[in-house]
Amino acid sequence: MDTAEQSSASDPSGLWKWLWLTVTTGALLFEVFRLKQILDAGGSVDLWLLFWHPESTAPLLVLLSLPVIQRIAPRRRRPTDDQHFKRESVGRTAAGGLLICLLSFFCNWWIGSTQVQVSESTAAEFADLPPAYHDEYSYLLQAKLFHDGRVTAPAVDVRPDLFHQFHVLNERVTASRYFPWPALWMAAFVDAERPVIGQWVAGTIAAGMFYLALCQVLQWRIAFLSGLLIAVSPGLSVFSNLMLSHHPVLVGLALFVAAFFRMQRTDSGLWAWISGVGLTLAMLGRPMTAAGFALPFGIWLSVATWRREHSWKLLVGFAVPLMTGFTLLGLHNRAVTGSFMSSAYQEYTDTFTPRHRYGFGNGMEKNPGNGPPVIQKYDEWADDLTIQRAAANVWNRLLGSLRWTWATVPLALCCLAGLVCILRDPEAVCRGKDNVIGIRLLILSIVTLHIVHIPYWYDGIQHWHYVFESCVPLLILAAVGCCWIVRRLEEGQTRRSARLWITALLLSGLVPGWIGLPMFDGASKTGAAVSELSFSRVRLYQFQKEFRSTRYSKPALVLVDERGIDPQLSYIINEPDMDGELLVCRRPETAAEIEDLAAAFPGHTIYHFTPPK
Description:
By secondary structure, the chain is mainly alpha-helical. The protein has helices at 3-10, 12-40, 45-50, 57-72, 90-112, 134-147, 180-187, 197-217, 220-232, 234-239, 246-266, 269-283, 287-306, 312-337, 344-352, 373-380, 387-405, 408-424, 436-452, 471-489, 495-514, 525-547, 591-600, and strands at residues 115-117, 123-125, 153-154, 168-169, 173-176, 556-560, 582-586, 605-609.
């Protein structure tokens, strides 16, 4: 190794300069590429200067300002004592947790309160509109059943193909295809005026619990910064306004991590059991996510137990709730599919959407899915997963994670710095040597979560929802990186200027996520997400408002003409027992079939609806 390489390997400041140069060069090249695109499209340099990219432009300006600040800022006269730890008071820890929870709930509410135009003269809050995705209605149907103390409703005995709702089985029994924990969480809020409040609460609890978990292993200032970043993450808040599984699963993962860290310190079987409960809840919501997230922890615990570094009682503590969870899942499977081993998710995939299965070569399926034409069209939407497609998905998910978790350039720099700190100098941020392994396992879960989702053809909602739960360890890694960067900067400038610079870098990514400024064409990332999600929500709102009005006789049966429509938007949504005053189904192909439907529902007035193309 030559002298320059030895200097870089032993000098953290030299390594920091290389990180800064690498990320700055990448951001600069992206801006040059953006300028070229504008010029090729007939634009001008003025257009490039006036309209910024939310992921790169402002962060690049902050990065380029650093050499100027270091030249003009006064230098420190004495080095910072990085190894000084003080015991934090319970009151300070509690106050920090309360602030994080309040901030998280406020951000979730803020998106939900966004005004959306539903007609020329009327606006409604985003949270008051019906959900956008098929999956959300499936979870809500399941939540209503659980709220009533049931797992299933009776099968649809009249033309189940016409009443087939996306992601809902309705031939043997009526039940959601999805795993039970998210709907069980939603069941507590399903009667509320806004069921989405349950998602806000889940996000709030998860943010607070991850903060408390980190207080066990990291210095308080880093744990607090991590909690703040989690609370105000644009992507986390956007997903808290969707009736999907992610936020209830985050609650389970937060409990798993908090109890696992406690178990590492105490070697307690009770904390192993509590950690296992958290992992079981996550497994009962998103099994692949839970497996990917927990894989590093499981490998470490197994090896440590084998080496007799920890007691076997810890494995037993984990095994009891996990086996209980698998048993409950088997009973749920039996109630829905008739088989202890066959899940509703697998049965729906095998029957209706075989091309959406897990694994490579999914597009080579010879047997098309059953169901009405729109379901078959949805099945055909799945592309064949090849090695090239899998590699592209990994890249898209990584970029999507960086973009929605915070912003690409600042998060990339802070995460790289955090990775250096965790690998080279973890004791500078951890509460002693014994806590280093815990934070390393949490960071490693980012990698394993991406790995377990490689064999799936779709990169995800907003290109990242399959690895959504990686946003929390990403933000924790970024918080560690921020503190490491500040320590490096303090070696050549004042503490105040170093902290102001890192704050500016974080804000350069956060502000475009929440505030629609003129240089971003007046649109924020959260605003753009709300606008995109509102497309389906507004149409479903208009449909439901129209046919539930007094202009139409009740009970009513609405026949929807689905020919030529996008399968991503379906109006076929009914109550579990098909007992609502408004029933919706697909319009049959022949007049005779329509007459048969009218005879099957003699008290219902028949209406026809053709969705706007």
